[in-house]
Amino acid sequence: MHIIVLGSSAGGGFPQWNCNCPQCAGHRAGSRAIRPRTQSSIIACADPAGAWALMNASPDILEQIRHTPALHPRQGLRDSGIAGVILVDGQIDHSTGLYMLRESTRPLALHCTDPVFEDLTQGNPVLQVLSHYCGIDRKPVPLDGSTFEVAGVPGLTFQAVPLSSKAAPYSPHREHPVCGDNIGLVLTDQHSGKTVFYAPGLGAWDERVHAVLCQVHCVMVDGTFWTDREMLDLGLGTKTARDIGHLPQSGPGGMMEWLATIPATTRKVLIHINNTNPILDENSPQRAQLLAQGIEVAWDGMHIQL
Ligand code: MLT
Ligand code: MN
Ligand code: ZN
């Protein structure tokens, strides 16, 4: 299985356009060792000679495609290495890129759950707007544990794991979660048997999530915030990480504690990292702490082969 990280950042990217936090400002001044990062998206396939599944369509997708030769047109006048799209939620950073794919010469194959489909046809009617362009070929994502495939991406199966996180702020169920607002995905290479769990929004770790993470070869999970109070402490927000559906890395019951409970041989990667998170700084003590625990920080262009 091949995975390429197109965008490793949370909503806003790094540096964020209007942010003067120490990290964004430090990056602009050239005084901090932090790579720029685009918004949250990965691609995967079992055979890189063929097409790829896109997980989440970021507002930065055009720049991401430009930097990813695997996705460039190969034959004919119009072509794409993207065979289909899977959404893990209806958040702005995961769905706005669908607009940028409107020139597609066939309806976009779009896999999403019923609540996300509802949000993207009502609260934020992206899919209705797109019916005036390429149109959408919508495929429901099952929530009962059954697997599904993306047509044109042979040898790879996907399984949704319903997660506790948050629907987008515009969603009628932002404060009244329903099953399917947020999912993680287990990707399985049918030939090699290798598995990856991808969840850029993971608000709570429970026994069910734990069981899944103990079984896979690689986890790519929510790296949004280092502390629960990160946005509050910086004076940038009024909500904790957990309030907006992201489990922070540090502190009691945080992501690092949980990742220490899954097998040491499992590759562990944090993804969907907010611009305020000190783990972005390659020289920070927080980054050193992660490294000491064998946890990697995703970057744009990171290629994972299993
Ligand atoms: C989130 O996951 O909470 C987001 O990154 C929000 C956003 O897209 O603005
Ligand atoms: Mn997000
Ligand atoms: Zn910032």
Task: Summarize this entry quickly.
This protein is α/β, with parallel strands linked by helices and 306 residues long.
Molecular structure report:
This protein is an alpha/beta fold and 306 residues long. It has a single domain, classed as Ribonuclease Z/Hydroxyacylglutathione hydrolase-like (Metallo-beta-lactamase, Chain A, 4-Layer Sandwich), CATH 3.60.15.10. Helices cover 19% and strands 22% of the residues. Strands 6-5-4-3-2-1-14 form a seven-stranded mixed β-sheet. A seven-stranded mixed β-sheet has the order 7-8-9-10-11-12-13. The mean pLDDT is 98. Bound molecules: D-malate (MLT), manganese (II) ion (MN) and zinc ion. D-malate (MLT) is lined by residues 10-11, 91-93, 201, 244.
Derived structural class = alpha/beta
Oligomer: single chain
Count of alpha and pi helical runs:
10
CATH-level-4 superfamily name: Ribonuclease Z/Hydroxyacylglutathione hydrolase-like
Q: What's the order of the H and E elements? A: EHEEHEHHEHHEEEEEHEHHEHEE
Report the mean per-residue pLDDT as an integer: 98
Relative helix content? 10-25%
Please give the largest β-sheet: 7 strands, mixed
Return Rg in Å: 18 Å
By CATH, the topology is Metallo-beta-lactamase, Chain A
Name of the top-level CATH class: Alpha Beta
Number of domains: 1
Ligands bound, unique: D-malate, manganese (II) ion, zinc ion
The CATH architecture name reads 4-Layer Sandwich
List descriptors.
single chain, 306 residues, alpha/beta, Metallo-beta-lactamase, Chain A, 7-stranded mixed beta sheet, 10 helices, 22% strand, globular, binds D-malate, binds manganese (II) ion, binds zinc ion
